[in-house]
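Hi support team,

I submitted a single chain yesterday and got back a structure, but I'm not sure I'm reading the token output correctly. Could someone confirm the output below corresponds to the sequence I sent? I've pasted both exactly as they appear in my results page.

Thanks,
R.
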Amino acid sequence: MRNRGSWKIRIFIGLAIVAFAFIKKCNNTEENPYTGRSQHINMSTEQEIAIGLQSAPEMAQQHGGLYPDERLQAFVDAVGQKLVNNSVARETPYKYDFHLLADDRTINAFALPGGQCFITYALFSQLNEAQLAGVLGHEIGHVIGRHSAERIADSNFWRTATMGATVGAGDLGSVVGGIGQNTLLTNGRGDELESDELGVLFMIQSGYDPYEMIQVMKILKAAAGPNRVPEFQSTHPDPENRIEKIKEAIIKYQGS
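Hi R., thanks for writing in. Yes, this is the structure output for that exact sequence:
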């Protein structure tokens, strides 16, 4: 009888934890004023900025530090600031900084919460100015889209829900955890597509040829090689799929 009672209590506690996670998620849902998309966010823009500034030095160090040529650093920042000043980004509270990383082997670009944007020299060295604008516009899109904050909130939600399921039903926790991972994976692809579209818009607003964004996708595809990870196993959509969405965005914003 004691074991049966203990089992019932465990189920009740587990369900309560899961319910708490869902209620908290619903209460933390808000509309992004810059994209119009409803998001689950559990931090302020000030916290995003603080996280980005605190994490920036470590992220730079992981890629060999900043590229030593101050002229190229200034060029990257100038292109980034041009995109900010000609788009909705200038109306946001974020502090945008654009960093050229010394890493000459890893083709990559990324953004931290709050406006810290990075591009490796390996990728930078393959781009013209318009293509660089496309990459930086994409990263600004991640910041404005609050994608990192959304992923952090989702991660916290699934951590709490998994804990509740584990308490209540043992192995069910691993199932919930798997669902959480798949959801984050799907949302990650959506983030990339949203940032691609925003990047196209920012390029047009700043006077850059948006079709150069397609060339960026071709560069990324070539860099990945024939053995690239299949789309369903990656957080990024396949470059070919991204190209089609970019073409649609160009028509949407440019009409041609």
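A quick pointer for reading it: Confidence is low (pLDDT under 50) at residues 12-26, 156-187. Let us know if anything else looks off.

Best,
Support desk
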